[in-house]
Amino acid sequence: MKIKIVLLTALLLAFSLIGLAQAKTNNAFAPESETYAGELQVGKTQSVILYFGAESGDYAAFCFKNNSAVGRAILAACKDKQQCQFTGEVTGGECKVPGLEADLSASSKIVSIKSVKSLAAKNSATGKTPKSSNKASAPDALIKNLYAAQKSGSGPFFQTRDRAFVDKYFRKDLADLIWKDAVAANGEVGAIDFDPLYGSQDPQISNFIIMETGWGGDRKFGGDDEAVVQVTFKDSGKERMVSYQFKRGKDTTWKIYDVHYRSDDGQVKLAEVLTKARAASQIIPASFQPPSKIETVEQLAKMLSEAFTANELGRLDAAQTNPGTVRIVLEHSITGEIESKIFKTFAAGEKWFKSREREDGPARNSGTLLRCKASICTYEQEGMLHNNLYLQKITYGYKKRLPYIKAIYVIDGD
């Protein structure tokens, strides 16, 4: 009898240990709880929390069914189009919510919730959000006004009618750069050779969303006197984001101090673009002595050929051969793709070429000048090699009987 009891006890202990081991194994593979925050978008049967990383520009979507325990908890705490934060477990899975911006490459399903809260409610209750006495001057309201103003023709960009249009939206440092660029361009294309509200030259916009203000006070959106408003959209079918960086002034007014354009190709900052362009326009190579006068277009075409192959297009600025802007057209021989850029100076065009270079090239080549006729100069070209750029032709005009270059055409051997 004692033997049976001992055996039974041993068996029970063994089963207990097996059960404990299985539980540990299952817990090892169970998803860990994480905290996420983003804009809640409510659908009829399913909803999604959209998260946009302020620093990385990465997109993520967290979806759930409205009638689930997770859904009821989130919808009870957060309202549609507001920022919502939750702590819970998520699992990999593609979010496709009809009618909502949730068909994203990075997405997960929320499987359980530990806690959830509305960030708008939190900020309102704690007073952490720096509220303005005038709601129209809040960062996200200012961005809505900016897009509407630019669309109606009363925006701050590409105009020299009134400096106040610029100062209304931008802090002094950035406002100075925008205003000076417009004045220097004199109606032509300046350093901003793209649509500054979308970050592309020919935007085809859909699924346009202006997010609520992301207030500072943490590592994501900066200090207490900083805020971020993110604008998301698709441009020709590709996901894009423009991030407006705000600072609060001594008068408690929020204004933009920089604009970040984020895409799969990386990030471009408006303040950096304008600062570099202004610096480039003032550069004159110390080693170059400009000729006293370029009297013929053939002289100008040969000078361009030498500057192009020497990687010193800025020489032509010193020679004062370009009274306005210059267009550079780059054709890719394999794909047939054509890139066309307009620059205020040759030095700016040179910087664009150099920004595309790698350690191994591409090298630049120019054949002998063939002829200049009917506003076009052409260069001899015998075959093409990989990783080489070839000067094809230029177009030119005359001002006060002196020639100047309108456009430079280059082909890439790819």
Topology:
Blueprint: H1 2-29, E1 34-42, E2 46-52, E3 59-65, H2 69-77, E4 83-92, E5 107-118, H3 119-126, H4 139-152, H5 164-167, H6 172-185, E6 205-210, E7 214-215, E8 226-235, E9 238-248, E10 254-263, E11 266-269, H7 270-281, H8 297-309, H9 315-318, E12 326-332, E13 338-343, H10 346-355, E14 363-366, E15 369-373, E16 376-379, E17 388-399, E18 402-412
Parallel strand pairs: 3-5, 12-18, 14-17
Antiparallel strand pairs: 1-2, 1-4, 2-3, 4-5, 6-8, 7-8, 8-9, 9-10, 10-11, 12-13, 15-16, 16-17, 17-18
Helix pairs in contact: 6-7
Please, could you describe this protein's structure?
The chain is of the alpha+beta class. It folds into 3 domains: 34-124, OB fold (Dihydrolipoamide Acetyltransferase, E2P) (Beta Barrel); 135-280, Nuclear Transport Factor 2, Chain: A (Roll), CATH 3.10.450; 297-412, Roll (Nuclear Transport Factor 2, Chain: A), CATH 3.10.450. The chain has helices at 2-29, 69-77, 119-126, 139-152, 164-167, 172-185, 270-281, 297-309, 315-318, 346-355; strands at 34-42, 46-52, 59-65, 83-92, 107-118, 205-210, 214-215, 226-235, 238-248, 254-263, 266-269, 326-332, 338-343, 363-366, 369-373, 376-379, 388-399, 402-412. The strands form 3 sheets. Strands 12, 13, 14, 15, 16, 17 and 18 form a 7-stranded mixed sheet that branches. Strands 6, 7, 8, 9, 10 and 11 form a 6-stranded antiparallel sheet that branches. Strand 15 (369-373) and strand 16 (376-379) form a beta hairpin. Helix 6 packs across helix 7 (270-281). The longest helix has 28 residues, at 2-29. The protein starts with a helix and ends with a strand.
